[in-house]
Design goal:
By secondary structure, the chain is α/β, with parallel strands linked by helices. It folds into 2 domains: 12-283, TIM Barrel, CATH 3.20.20; 314-557, Spore Coat Polysaccharide Biosynthesis Protein SpsA, Chain A (Alpha-Beta Complex). It has helices at residues 44-58, 68-73, 75-83, 103-121, 141-148, 203-208, 211-224, 250-257, 260-273, 279-283, 335-349, 368-376, 393-403, 423-426, 453-469, 499-511, 535-562, 565-569, and strands spanning 12-19, 63-66, 87-90, 127-128, 153-154, 174-178, 181-185, 190-193, 196-199, 230-234, 275-277, 320-328, 353-362, 382-387, 408-411, 436-440, 447-449, 482-485, 516-520, 522-524. A 7-stranded mixed sheet has the order 14-13-12-15-18-16-19, sandwiched between helices. α3 (75-83) packs across α4, α4 crosses α5 (141-148) and α15 (453-469) runs parallel beside α17. The longest helix is centred in the last third of the chain and has 28 residues, at 535-562.
């Protein structure tokens, strides 16, 4: 228990909870844009209920700072927070920093977020906290706009380090005046260490700084300060099982995941030892309760793809049958993201293409097979097959092609490094006379996002060697993201069934006279799970394949030279 020496046992402090999902937070925003949020399996509902139950158990009330995006996409979660007696405040619509927007953009974001949250919860939204970082001296213009927009308080000012050292009053709740309008500022609590202000409140600080330091600092605040402690945490910090985003840096992983397993115990310690209420309660704002008549219940359209039989074609033109093959090996962590992405693509093209999907479990040792059956086995537009043992991505791709339902077959990797939505540009390129379309991040207008440079250098080097020995001169031969004609691969056999085999498929077509074209595409870093590629073995395999192809080309050239002149002129 926290000692309350020097303070009343009935003294109430201020608690806030940040409501955002694990894929929306600052450390991962560099690699996950907001238009990808809907692809991730949401954990916001379970984490919100876990948080609400914890607050009920400890008798605490809190101000929930919520992204407006959640108000639009999961309004029932926000409504439940308000129903259980907690305050709803805004954290902006998207997870933007104040440094990334203009004053007018900031104002529009405020209005959009407030409207979404009020529609979801049926209560007025009177408070705001910036989504990322905090307000420094140069950002105080935002308080003026908040006052103009009628917000009663803000909790964005961060008097950390030497920021606001010449204005010590900003460490505590104070009034900001602007053009005859005022707004309360409720900064998070800090500990004064000489000329520095050290944060002692907030989930990341509670997780990262030594526990004894935070506990002693909070005890000192309670004992010495008359102002309430302003404390907060994130709902996702009570979820140590959340998916790990593998594309972020080591420092970002530390910031996001360190000590998650200990967070509930640490938070419970403070909730048990102190009494907490909302910001509105402390500021004396009128109590509000959810108004059922004010709640706007949007019509929720399922993002799951419709079965083939339910798909509609464009007026006057039947939808073109297309199969999509997805080889999977130990992809349990990515399959929820993959399902949402494929459903989004299906919805986008359903009037143009009649899609069917083939998922091939390549002898996975995790729960990939169980997850595939859970997500896809019951759907009319999906087939799920399995290799008893791991054979390799090329073998799994060919298995999927053999099980596909139609002539046009798209092959994609389960890791999401190429967005399936790009197939919308690739499929029309499979014109008469073309047997394969391959994606290229190296082609003009192609793009590479956050992928390590050394991996791209290896791929570029391999492609340069393949251009020497193959007829089709492409910029990228190692991509798994392609469109094929099924009939052209009926009799294919591979030397290498693993990653190198993906290139060997193109080489097999090339040596038999097929025309292959490439489409500029965006290659992104893998977000979930880990790559299974063995770099040294893959490099060795490519060198062996290039040597074999060079031998075949040399034999081809020698045969052409030895042929009679008339045969060379009239093949």
């Amino acid at each position: 228990m926290i000692s309350l020496e020097g303070g009343s046992a009935d003294r109430r402090h201020i608690l806030s909870v940040v409501l955002e999902d694990y894929c929306q937070v600052g450390p991962v925003s560099r690699v996950i844009p907001s238009n990808y949020w809907h692809r991730f399996e949401s954990r916001i509902e379970q984490n919100t209920h876990r948080t609400l139950d914890l607050l009920d158990e400890t008798g605490a009330k809190a101000t929930f700072f919520v992204l407006g995006w959640l108000g639009e996409h999961q309004p029932h979660v926000i409504a439940e927070v308000a129903r259980r007696g907690h305050e709803i405040a805004s954290k902006g619509y998207l997870h933007n920093s104040i440094r990334e927007v203009s004053p007018e953009q900031f104002r529009l974001d405020l209005r959009r977020s407030r409207q979404a949250l009020e529609d979801a919860a049926g209560v007025p939204v009177r408070g705001y906290r910036t989504a990322r970082g905090g307000f420094g001296k140069r950002d105080l213009w935002a308080l003026d706009i908040l006052a103009e927009e009628g917000f009663a308080y803000d909790s964005s000012v961060r008097p950390v380090g030497t920021e606001f050292a010449d204005e010590p009053f900003r460490r505590f709740i104070h009034r900001h005046e602007h053009a005859g309008q005022g707004i309360w500022e409720v900064p998070l609590s800090t500990w004064k260490l000489g000329s520095l202000s050290v944060p002692i409140s907030g989930g990341n600080y509670v997780r990262q700084l030594p526990e004894f330091f935070i506990r002693n600092a909070i005890k000192r605040w309670v004992r010495e300060e008359t102002a309430p402690l302003v404390f907060y945490f994130h709902a996702w910090e009570l979820d140590p099982e959340q998916p790990r985003i593998g594309a972020i840096t080591r420092l970002e992983r530390v910031r996001q995941y360190r000590n998650l397993h200990a967070m509930e115990t640490r938070i419970r310690h403070y909730l048990d030892g102190l009494k907490f209420g909302t910001m509105a309660e402390h500021l004396g704002l009128p109590e509000v309760k959810p108004d059922p008549l004010r709640i706007v219940r949007p019509i929720v359209v399922s993002e799951r793809a419709a079965p083939v039989a339910a798909m509609s074609a464009r007026p006057g033109a039947p939808a073109l049958p297309v199969s999509v093959v997805i080889p999977c090996f130990n992809e349990e962590a990515t399959l929820g993201y993959l399902a949402n992405t494929l459903d989004s693509f299906n919805e986008r093209v359903r009037d143009t293409y009649e899609l069917s999907f083939v998922f091939v479990d390549d002898g996975s040792s995790d729960k990939t097979w169980e997850r595939l059956n859970e997500l896809f086995a019951g759907r009319a537009d999906c087939d799920v097959v399995q290799h008893p043992q791991n054979r390799g991505i090329a073998a799994a791709t060919l298995t999927g092609i053999r099980h596909s339902r139609c002539e046009i077959v798209c092959a994609i990797d389960a890791d999401g490094t190429f967005d399936p939505h790009q197939l919308e540009e690739m499929i029309p390129m499979l014109k008469p006379g073309v047997d394969a379309v391959t994606a290229s991040c190296f082609a003009e207008n192609g793009q590479i996002m956050n992928v390590p440079a050394w991996r791209m250098a290896l791929s570029k080097g391999a492609s340069a060697l393949y251009r020497i020995v193959l007829h089709n001169k492409l910029s990228h031969y190692t991509s798994c993201f392609r469109v094929y004609r099924k009939s052209t691969l009926t009799h294919i056999s591979l030397r290498n069934e693993r990653y190198v085999g993906i290139t060997e498929i193109l080489a097999w077509l090339d040596m038999r006279g097929s025309r292959i074209v490439e489409c500029p595409a965006v290659l992104e870093v893998r977000l979930l799970g880990q790559s299974k590629m063995k770099i040294a073995k893959t490099i060795g395999g490519h060198l062996q394949l290039i040597r074999a192809l060079a031998g075949e080309r040399l034999a081809e050239m020698m045969s052409a030279r030895q042929a009679p002149r008339s045969q060379r002129q009239h093949p």
